Write the structure tokens for this entry.
Amino acid sequence: MLVIGEKVNVMMKKIGQAMKEYDKKPIQEMALLQVEGGANWLDINLGPATKEGPERMRFVVQAVQEVTDVPLALDTMNIEAMKAGLEVVEGREVMINSISSQPERIESLMPMAVEHNAWVVGLVLNAQGNVPRDANERVEVAYNIIMAAQEYGIPLDKLLIDPIVLPISVTQDQVHALIDAMDMLQGVFSEFDPPPGTVVGLSNVSNSVPDESLCSLLNRTLLAVLMVKGLTAAIVDPNDESLMGVINGNEEYQIVEKIVNGEAVDESDPTAVELLKTWRVLTEETLYAHSYLEL
């Protein structure tokens, strides 16, 4: 599985300040820290990048390239910033994160992907830029993105469909829809050779959850569930050792695999109980509350 480090991100206070001030050191330290943790790609997330977007993207890409040769995923809504970043990537694979089904983003970014032989994240926002209502709409939008990629000549083994992770604390039904969509996507992908892959921005699921340990549990459990259902890449914190353990198939992953497959687990084991309760929340069998582990 591709492990894409999430922390060269404008939303992180220290990194956002470094981007604003064109200060290489914090950005380079964060890049190296993530590679040491096990990231084999690095996401460079400038967000909207409405001010000096191209200049900032060029600066950050070049700063990271000075200290590591891992591939880069360029992540911004600013099309000109994306173009600038692609132009300075040297000697490595690169990913465009992301292209939705919105016509203007397809028409602007897919030709860039072809020009730079880039991987593409296909974000399943609909043509109006909205999150699909349910699993069926997610799959419909994903299919449209796959068709567009084929029209532009993008190899499908370089296309990763992102079915969108939303915060469970406010959109529990959408997390359940994501899990159902992963099942449905495997059927769609079977029509293609080679098939596309899938990717998620994992930590979105625990946004607004106040307890750090609960955030980690939600992240780890959802990751394990999605891995069982065929996930091929994830944008994560590679310095979270417990999370990386799941990626490497540890005991928590094995317990979740049994749960997803409908097998019994040892309910005298506190770890298994926590994972089972979290599975029930992720699939709406139990309503989410910050205290759900106590119920």
